[in-house]
Amino acid sequence: MKTSLFLASLLFVSTIATPAALSHRSCNKPIVRREWRRLSADERLDYLTAVQCILIKPPLTPTDVAPGVGARYDDFVATHIAQTFSIHYVGHFLPWHRYFTAVYEKALREECGYTGAQPYWDWTLDVTPSSKFVQSPVWDPVTGFGGNGPFIETDPSDPFSVPGRTGGGCVEDGPFQNMTVRMGPGADVSGNPRCLSRDFSPYFAGRYLGKNVTDYTLSQSNFGWFTRVVEGAPSFDASGIHGGGHFGVGGTLGEMGDLYNSPSDPIFYLHHANLDRIWWSWQHEDPVQRLNDISGPIFIMDYDNVQGGNVTLASPLSVGVNAPDVVVGDVMNIRGGALCYVYDRLH
Ligand SMILES: *[C@@H]1O[C@H](CO)[C@@H](O)[C@H](O)[C@H]1NC(C)=O
Ligand SMILES: *[C@@H]1O[C@H](CO)[C@@H](O)[C@H](O)[C@H]1NC(C)=O
Ligand SMILES: *[C@@H]1O[C@H](CO)[C@@H](O)[C@H](O)[C@H]1NC(C)=O
Ligand SMILES: [Cu+2]
């Protein structure tokens, strides 16, 4: 049964794969994704310049779909918002975000003249001790993404109050100081122009982004548990590395802490590239098994399969206007199918 399903899905992949996926089938010269601090200062500036470019390029999303979309960058945010409840706490959480990040990387390269690969942020380098968090090179005002916003009081008894939050206001320095966020908050795509906010919690980052949590994540023996440990429970008391990055940076009031709207902060893509690298590192430990190991619910939080079955290699992935649809099997290997990149280092 298992074998025939697997063969069926392979057949499915090879017969209906999209032209885009087919054109990338041979991956002889993968681009190499590197950690932010291992790029030269010029390479960091090249990346930041490409982000400034996509922030002002005209959008592709039709106005009746998301009236507030004002730039090509927003196409990605609106796509994430539209699918929020079908791409988190599901089996295809990691495959979807892998494809989404690669498609963003492709847009920077093909539409904004960027010649490098998507960088990643290895937060384990910045959280021991947690006081180091604010000094990370990723927050540099010139060769990074700028830092925190000023502190804004919130009600600490609010269940959404992230423990240890220290900011909440508009980012005060760096290249995204004057960036206009239009999508969100939450599911709202009508257009709410405002500043980019961050609400750092060094405490939260220290608790979930240390090497110990990544090592625990990598010790899971199958994909079903691996992805559940990456996502953690939707609670501040039992987050995983995914929530660690989102709430460590976005806290309560920052874009990164908004499940829908988090791609509005350009650091989103460096966080997700690192999650992807950790998944790749896990796959690499047992490629024969793990390049095909996929499971987990089709429907959000449906871990007992009450509403439906599990995701398979044939399950569809859509990133909306940004690229052709693919299937999970097209993104299991970063050097094949719809993808063609590698990481400089495994975790
Ligand atoms: C942001 O806008 C303010 C006020 O117009 C200006 O002083 C500052 O230099 C701008 N910062 C960037 C990074 O463009
Ligand atoms: C990892 O270390 C942090 C900081 O000491 C701690 O709060 C957390 O509970 C540890 N987590 C695991 C899974 O070991
Ligand atoms: C779905 O996947 C989980 C592991 O992620 C597994 O334990 C469960 O048995 C699977 N359910 C079905 C219906 O195959
Ligand atoms: Cu997401």
What report would you give on this structure?
The chain has 12 helices and 6 strands. Helix content is 36%, strand content 4%. The relative contact order is 0.19. The chain has a single domain (3-343), classed as Di-copper center containing domain from catechol oxidase (di-copper center containing domain from catechol oxidase). The chain has helices spanning 2-16, 19-23, 41-54, 72-82, 84-87, 93-112, 202-208, 211-218, 223-231, 241-250, 268-284, 287-290; strands at 31-33, 180-181, 194-195, 316-317, 326-327, 341-343. By secondary structure, the protein is mainly α. The protein binds 2-acetamido-2-deoxy-beta-D-glucopyranose (NAG) (3 copies) and copper (II) ion. One 2-acetamido-2-deoxy-beta-D-glucopyranose is lined by residues 224, 295-296, 305, 309-310. One of its GO terms (molecular function) is metal ion binding. Keywords: Copper, Metal-binding, Signal.
Q: Quick gist of this model?
A:
The protein is mainly alpha-helical and 347 residues long. The chain is 36% helix and 4% strand.
Which features does this protein show?
binds 2-acetamido-2-deoxy-beta-D-glucopyranose; 12 helices; two-stranded parallel sheet; disordered N terminus; two-stranded antiparallel sheet; 347 residues; di-copper center containing domain from catechol oxidase
